[in-house]
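Appendix B, Record 12. Input sequence as logged:
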Amino acid sequence: MLRFFQTYHFFVLTLFMGIPAWWLVFQYPQHLKQTAWIAIVVIPFAFTERFFVPEYWNPVFLGPFFEWTGAGVEDLLFVIHLAWITVYSPLFIFRRDWEEKNVPWDMVVFIRLIGLILATLGSFGVAVRMGLNPLIGASVGMVFGMGFIVCAGPRLSGDVGRGLLAGGGIYFLICLIYGAVYREDFTVIWRTTGLSHQFILGVPLEEVIYGVLAGGLGGSFISFLRRSPTSPRSLSSLSSPPTRAS
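Logged structural output:
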């Protein structure tokens, strides 16, 4: 068991992320269907890992799945756990929730969703083709994604801001814990060519920025699909039993 943890650092990182991710999911059982949809929607982003290895980092993957498909088990867990953290942490920290209506899965929603994915992945691809470090490319993609969200619904800027703070803060704390366990990883496994070589408490600056931007994108994603911002809720209403799944 000890050898496993000494070898598969990326998998351990996804386990660290899974603790707050699953805890947050269980705080909102009324949104079970949306939780599942979020996991499905972010799966394509796991296959961008081939752009990061070995240009940004070179972790040891569990099993041959990365070589076979371009996405390892760790990549799937990473994007799903990160999505759940960034979606639900602003709701919990700022005591907010979505409106009581379901996401209207009509043609307009699908067009908006496809537009958001194209804006994010498309700008990421362009940035990588321009020779930027993949992590910077990912940040560019998320900036364009948030821009698309705000342009489509200016009232969602508040959800973007809360996501930047909540999701970004939790991701930074996870990186701090990971860096404390694997003290040399951020300087050995992470390859910072083309980056600033600046660190915040041992965490690469670009990694911190990545987490903050992911928080802004995730914190406004469901509001973007619902076409309405979150609304304030009391702690009692957040902890009350759900009436129906949304």
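Residues 2-239 form one domain.
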